[in-house]
Records
---
Amino acid sequence: MRTASLLKRISGVEKVVIEGEDFEGDDVVIKVRLHKRQQRRCSRCGRRCGGHDNGRGRRRWRVMDFGTVMVWLEAEAPRVRCPRHGVVIARVTWARTGSGFTHHFEDQVAWLSTNTSQSAVGQLMRIAWRTVGRVLRRVVEERREGVDLLDGLTRIGIDETSYRRGHRYLTVVVCHDTGRFVWAHPGNSKATLEMFFAELGEERRGRITHVTCDGAEWIHDTVRSRCEKAEVCLDAFHIVAWANDAVDSVRRELWNEQRTSGDKQLAGEVKGTRWALLKNPENLTGRQADALAQLEADNSDLYRAYLLKEQLRLLLRQPAEKAIPLLDGWIQWAAASGLAAFEKVAKTIARQRSAVEAMLRHGLTNGRVESVNAKIRLIQRRAYGFHDPFALIALAQLTLSGLCPPLPGRGLL
Ligand SMILES: [Zn+2]
């Protein structure tokens, strides 16, 4: 009797009947059964149902180690016939459905995964990393039942981030007011974002007032059709990035021209200005500043491109009442610059004018989303080897959405 209480307390598995315990090699196996009233319940809804068959007989669940000893729980795993869910495996009170580990074991895996390296988790818990991914998905799914991350959203940021060495994308949604990462799904298309808005539902969609994003049309179009009242704010960082790309294309054009005309020395000089042109002037090295001064002296197209970029960058830092009138001047200047790349930027900005102005007026940037994305990329590095994007999302939600369970037995800290 005392042994039974001790085993229950140490394994963290309460409300069971201990039938016996034994050594099996170096491991300990504890044989248990559920209390009568916990038996024959559907593992999906918990409803008591009629028995179906013995399933695959007895099975085992990993319990947290007792010191250095690996411990298993062994019990019957019969199937029941639920009026709603059909034939399903019967629920056990010590583990999540479909898991081969106890609640405590999985909670510890989740906690460790958000706090330490992949190899530490694997070695300490003695499980494969792939298994960790499945554990995290189960823990997050359960934790999300109690917390609706999409509640109370008014100002959100939407962006995409790449995973798996840039081959695949996740769409990421962040709440501006809490800074919390609230939603992600593999994919970067209208269809992906539609899933977010469907989950949000009509009523909550109506409460969204501001959406920050880059210039991606799939985001703009979807937001405009799903949240008619929301103001779309184009991110300043992305606008500057368009100008940087334009500078780079002017530079490449010039370099190609000079190279084909045989002016190798000049071509080399132009090539060497790449970083000088894209940097903010206050960060230039002495050599980069000299390279720019040379361009200015030559009065080249490239120098004009540089000035256009810098003007735009500085303009976007001004308060709205100053910046908005200046924007007209900039668009005209760029449109008449004779530089095709900047004519294109001018057109894009003119087309997205309301979203640029909204950004200036509300001072909202996509910075929060960018910083969440940067954290997701770090998590991804830690999660290297997850082939399942949902496992990556689960780890990101445990880490960044406040879903991580406390360590077993510690209560809420
Ligand atoms: Zn059921």
---
Amino acid sequence: MHKIDFDLVEMTMDVMKYTIDRISHTKQKVGKPQKAVVLKELVGETITKEGIGGEKAFKLWKKHLAKANVPVDHPRNLAFVPAAPTRAAVMFDLVTSVSSIHGAYWMEGAGGIFCENEAMKWMVSLTGMTEGAFGVFTSGGTAANLSAIVTARERWREDDTYKREKGLIITSIGAHSSVKAMAKVADVDILLVDSEEELKGEDLRNTIENLTFHQRKRLFAVVATGGTTNAGIIDDLDGIAEVCEKEKLWFHVDAAYGGGALIADSVRHLFNGIERADSITIDPHKWMFSPYDCGAVIYKNPDYAKNAHSQEGSYLDIFKDEGAHGFNPADYQIQLTRRVRGLPLWFSLATHGTDRYKASVERGIELAQIAGKIIEENPNVELVREPSLSCVLYRRIGWQPEDYTHWTYENHNKGFALVTPTKWKNGDMFETVSRFCFINPDTTEEDIRLIIESMA
Ligand SMILES: *Cc1c(COP(=O)(O)O)cnc(C)c1O
């Protein structure tokens, strides 16, 4: 199976044909999942002693399995945080795979890591962080948040006073679920400020003042959100930075979703203060149009990350030698062997230039504003709050939670759209509402109108 023969050539052609077809298609289906037993019935036994052959396996993929996925780049997929990787980035993902690059150490992956670093320099420049700040691409926001918080905790524990303390971090209920998951992995406690609206410096100060003596001792970091996943809300980053500096706390900004909007002039001011962060998470696979998976973590002082993450092992010593000098991504996050997952972003940025990125992100923000207007003009629906970044929360007047669920499934089953409900905290109550998140610049005003009208 490592030989080059006629079957290989044929399989390669088939894959290229499929790729060209997929990439030039603008009207792909919304797609929907199937139960595993149904899929099994459709495709039968695929892993056998002799193999079923590439042709058959690929046929099964095209005929049954591909259709059981919901493409994230469909213009009427407005659920969760969808995606719209550029075609240049997707094509270079193929190049990344075919090049077989080990992206952990400069010694093996210098060319690929160089490209990643060029893209990273641009990302760092968007944050306005000081000279010396730098970052690394991760598998996603969860891995980036975890890498950052482990870095913060290790830095904190350098002081013997805290060696045996279980850490505590503060964030708000608007923070992404992965922050809680990450705290569990890092075995730190988490204190949630009970507001889904923007977390202000003042709220943080009050929360800290109300901590017990021991809690205050255990507190080492604050996680602010630069664009909540649910509603696109950006915390008061300047105010929070102020408190963190005064209290000597690590200031992490989770901008996994919102980070792409740092390039958008219309909203950049909302992120003021992000440059004061100790670490920032940005997911290029969300609003920087990279294919999955591509997250990133940026550190004000990357040496702290190196102290926390650099792996020791006799078989790894060679990488520390003179001949291997250069940037080693493995030293700055939790993963060792890694693909150079920033490479597709680099190629797309180099191809299109950063102005096109700006325009595409601005379009997402504009679509949210357009959706807001359409909602205001339709008597059946109303905004829950003003659109923020590219998120729109709205209610269908008179609907119960099960109506939203039913509507979602109906639209999905028809292959028309994927728009999922969410919950919004209203006083002490969680209300079920509908939500759009725009990423794909190819979503049209007509798409939005049709979706709203389907709620009649
Ligand atoms: C999506 C998201 C995450 C998680 O990122 P993954 O790439 O899914 O691991 C974390 N934080 C925020 C704010 C997000 O929007």
---
Amino acid sequence: MFRPGPTVRLSAHLRRALATHVASPTPSPTRHSWSKQDIQKIYDSPLLDLVFRAASIHREHHDPSKIQLCTLMNIKTGGCSEDCSYCSQSSRYSTPTKASRLVDIEPVLEAARKAKENGSTRFCMGAAWRDLSGRKRGFERILTMVREIRGMGMEVCTTLGMLSPEQARQLKEAGLTAYNHNLDTSREYYPEVSHRGSSVITTRSYDERLDTISAVRDAGISVCSGGILGLGETDKDRVGLIWEVANMPEHPESFPVNALVPIKGTPLENNEPVPYQTILRTISTARIVLPRTIIRLAAGRQTLDETQQAMCFMAGANAVFTGEQMLTTPCSPWDEDKAMMGRWGLEGMGSFEQADVARKEGARLAVQAGVRSPTAPTDASKEDERNVV
Ligand code: SF4
């Protein structure tokens, strides 16, 4: 890195520019009392100014050279009773996705080992169903998967539909690091009639989603909750989604930004792709409003070229899914992602490198060891709430 000697005088402008490239000793505070107007103002700012500001905040809170590599596995595919209008796994739509039973433990462990060998530090398992009711044996199998994969030193995430507080507690005890439950879009757009006369989802309410997120958070599991762009929503809805998570008592540790991949047979099969600038704007706004959160460039990443992805990483996206397959859409393979990251000076993040995830894991290990953790979770709502707009 270039270090000016004592005789080199930098202009104020250059000093400001260089200051965005190093972690600040006093990062901007995390705020939990956002108004929609505040967030809209950020979202509407000129795009390159927005990216610059997001990149600066990213560098205060994260190592900008690190990208979390996650691998996703569908452990129970298709046949789902829910009617999510974007999903090929719903039994209500005629799609190429075929229903299957919950997979056995060993193939999942094999896939996790392979993911680890290839540099992934988080392994996520998804099951296509509404919830775990009536699935006692299946849940026990999943708890074993979680225990075994956590034992490999990986972060473990699941997405299993709605959870009760007791189920969340059992998952935590088994070693679950994170639970994914997306809000999808704003509260206002969620029930609204969209293309072809169907809602985004009718079988699960927004509040039921928030209840599952609360159960996960209360169990001490990291929350992964974000949305999908391209459902037919407006800028106001994208702001509404960010507002919803920004005002939670703790910001989610992970915020996935998915771009709809329209699937034939689903009600949204003919949706227009969301413009790249909208994806970049959403990522940048989320980075500013949720400064400590991992922003996950999720489904639809394959539609972006390398330079577009790099711009997203610049603006604060710091996690990707990599491997063989997303839940139902294609994924970039490890070797391609590693080569891309090398070209842009990026490298994989270690397990439990994110401070908030590490804190929750520390608390879990301390409880298991029978000691009170000095790093027990803090009440994020008590953090500094100075206006950072
Ligand atoms: S998104 Fe999940 S809950 Fe909705 S239909 Fe697909 S598998 Fe079922």
